[in-house]
Amino acid sequence: MTAPTLTDATHGPDARTDDDASSPGRSDAAALATLDLPDDVRTVLTSARSVVVPRSRDELYRLALGPDGGPRFSVAYDVAGEPVVEAEVVRCRNGVSVNYPEDYMRRRDPDCMRIGDDLPSDKPRFADRHGGPFAPVRTETLAWLAEQDLVVVPFRAGGPRFGYPSLGVVPVNAAFFALALADLQGFTTLDDLVAQHGAFAPRSVLYVAPPFRHTHFAGRQVVVHDRTETLHEVFAYNLYPGPSAKKGVFSVLLDIGEQEGWLTAHASSVRVTTPYENETIVMHEGASGGGKSEMCQEIRRQEDGRILLGTNVVTGEPYVITLSETSRLEPVTDDMTLCHASLQTGSGKLVVTDAEDGWFVRVDNLTEYGEDCHLERVFIHPAEPLVFFNLDGVPDATCLPWEHTLDSTGTPCPNPRVVVPRRLIRGVVDEPEEVDVRTFGVRMPACTRTSPTYGVMGMMHLVPPALAWLWRLIAPRGDKNPSIGESADAVQRLAHGGMVSEGVGSFWPFSTGTRVGGANLLLRQIVDAPRTRYVLTPNQHIGAYKVGFAAEWLTREYLARRGGGRIRPDQLVASRCPLFGYTLREMKIDGQLIRPTFLRTDQQSQVGVEAYDVGARILTDFFQAELAQYLTDDLDPLGRAIIEVCLRDGGIEEYEALTPMVG
User: Fold this and answer.
1) Where is this region: Disordered (predicted)?
2) Burial 386-412 (b: 16+ CB within 10 A, else e)
3) Which contiguous run of DSSP H or E holds residue 140?
4) 490, pLDDT greater than 70
């Protein structure tokens, strides 16, 4: 069988082939031939009509514009003899804007993961959901790819420094997807990977076959994970990169980490330098929409320079504070935080670095010019063209981050995204960092006397490691999560004041393993870092106040100004709800006292003790119902003891006895 034809990104008269002895693509062809690939995968690459292996990001970007180079390009596939458009690509001055005809395709379906193998997993098996084994569908998928023009993207799953050599196999007309994958994981070449690893065997391979969602899955997003001990294959049957190029690679890292005994956290982290030059590393976790991206963003100010902390939802009363100068922010990680075993130093603090080379930034909170000047500068005047999703792109005009695509309802899509390579972010930190504080964010609904809900968390709570583990084990997802499409069951529960658990460190939606296995790894990680401080902070609401992400930003500012300073026991008050650990007796930022009612919501006039207790009971009942599933023989004994405290409504002193707070 002849070797595949290698073409450059122009698809024009200058396309190169293997017959051109001077073609730089010849080394790529040789590299493909030397890879240690499964036989059926090698057959795909040798049988395809053509295979493009981009030798620069610019080549891949030109591929994304389509065969004519723009200005508009429809990504369409034959489905039962009819063309079906999966995406529209528009060439803009600052990149390519990608939009999907269906509202459903503009956000990740939380029920898209399927497990195609027989290794241990608590996730839905392909056979259970689709009436038969995955193997025949895998064979069909590879056969379909073998008939296409392909682009093969080499990358390192886990980032350029610690990543595992991997490949993306994508139809060439969906090169925008390949570009997003390369930007997220870091563009590299086969030559670079071969130079580093020799004739390597990919640790993971991502395949993209869009028409299968119509021919096999009734139009639904489906991403199938087919694992062995040495190869993790991801089959993406859709073109929204969230569940595959983004979270699918997250799944690969979690799978590898479970085998090797380390975790990739669902977290952002930032180095915060105060006006007094004190440095603090804050790592922020939470379910989707829990404030991870926002942790790396500047505090929003009003036109007069003041900061709006919250607005009372009953009276309309605003509460503003004034800060003359805020801390300098230098992002470390944005969403996937690598806690690789080789990084840990035994210092008693968790050491982290970025698991990605680019960020999938959600810009739903940018609604007009000037709301985040630093990000807007990157988006509007990038050093190299970007990839925009769910944003209104006009040919050869600038794609603006606040012009969100309208859903069919006429309302802005809640999940507009921009893929931004880390190298374009000013002040980004490239070296591993020790985490001083791990915060956990929860989207809270408003709580009032007349409409009590679980939205009773104060602005900031300090918790012992045991409670930090419980919150990550449950990872509640609430109030209007914009990042994903909710299942019908989730919509029903959220609409009636309930919660949905994202589970196990909030990385559980992307894990292919078992809940208890992930819970044990997470517990060991927390216990092994006793010098890292643990904090809870809400977003959206604090009791009767609408706060957005202001509480998270001001908590970050407060923690940075305290630095590594010890918080004495007499500065803390046990929270009325034990799950909230401790509350500060008072909180002062830049000489200004935060209202005590923002720390203890039961003291708010629009909430009160009765409504607070109703909300605390909702939260406690939810935790107890979710925790019961972890009580198996495989659970770490310390984890069992912690869960049993919660199940019997134990007090904060019991949690702290199991895992003392340090400092």
Assistant:
1) 1-27
2) bbbbbbbbeeeeebbbbbbbebeeeeb
3) helix 135-145
4) no
d(CA 332, CA 390): 26
> Can you give the pLDDT at residue 388?
98
- Report yes or no: 95 and 388 within 8 Å, Cβ to Cβ: yes
Backbone angles phi, psi at 406, to 5 degrees: -85, 135
Taking the C-alpha atoms of residue 600 and residue 98, their distance in angstroms, rounded to an integer, is: 45
Is residue 137 very low, low, confident or very high in pLDDT (cuts 50, 70, 90)? very high
3-state DSSP call for residue 242? helix
Q: Give 32-76 as a 3 state SS string.
A: HHHCCCCHHHHHHHHHCCEEECCCCHHHHHHHHCCCCCCCEEEEE
82-91, 218-227, 365-374: range with lowest mean pLDDT: 365-374
CA atoms of 8 and 424, how far apart (whole Å) = 26
Residue type, 647: L
How far apart CA 147 and CA 145 sit, in angstroms, is 5
Least confident of 9-13, 74-78, 182-186, 274-278: 9-13
What does the pLDDT average to over 236-240? 97
- Considering only CA atoms, which of 390, 412, 411 is closest in space to residue 399? 390
Cβ atoms 154, 189 nearer than 8 A:
yes
Q: Selecting from 3.30.450.20, 3.90.228.20, 3.40.50.300, 3.40.50.20, what CATH number does the domain 264-350+435-658 have?
A: 3.90.228.20
- Spatial CB neighbours of 387, under 8 Å, sequence gap ≥ 6: 64, 95, 96, 98, 176, 179, 180, 183, 418, 419
How far apart, in whole angstroms, are the C-alpha atoms of residue 283 and residue 272? 11
d(CA 31, CA 35): 6
Residue 33: the pLDDT is 80
More confident residue, 303 or 279: 279
Find how far residue 58's CA is from the centre of its chain: 26
CA atoms of 659 and 523, how far apart (whole Å): 11
* Residue 5 pLDDT > 90: no
Higher-confidence residue: 481 or 495? Answer: 481
Sequence spans of domains, the chain: 25-260, 264-350+435-658, 373-421
- The tens digit of pLDDT for each residue in 439-461 reads 999 999 999 999 999 999 999 99
> Which has the closest alpha carbon to 548: 274, 348, 354, 297?
297
Strands of 120-181, DSSP E: 149-157, 164-171
Contact 75/239 with Cβ under 8 angstroms? Answer: yes
Helices (H), 496-532: 515-527
Q: How big is the CA angle at 256 (ends 345 and 350), to the nearest 5 degrees?
A: 25
Percentage, residues of the chain above pLDDT 90: 80
Grade residue 34 by pLDDT with cuts at 50, 70 and 90.
confident
Helix, strand, coil percentages in the chain from 3-state DSSP, rounded to 5: 30, 25, 45
Q: Is the pLDDT of residue 489 over 90?
A: no
Q: What is the 3-state secondary structure (H, E, C) of 267-309?
A: EEEEEEECCCCCEEEEEEEECCCCCHHHHCCCCCCCCCCCEEE
CATH fold of 25-260 reads: Phosphoenolpyruvate Carboxykinase; domain 1 (3.40.449)
pTM greater than 0.85 (yes/no) = yes
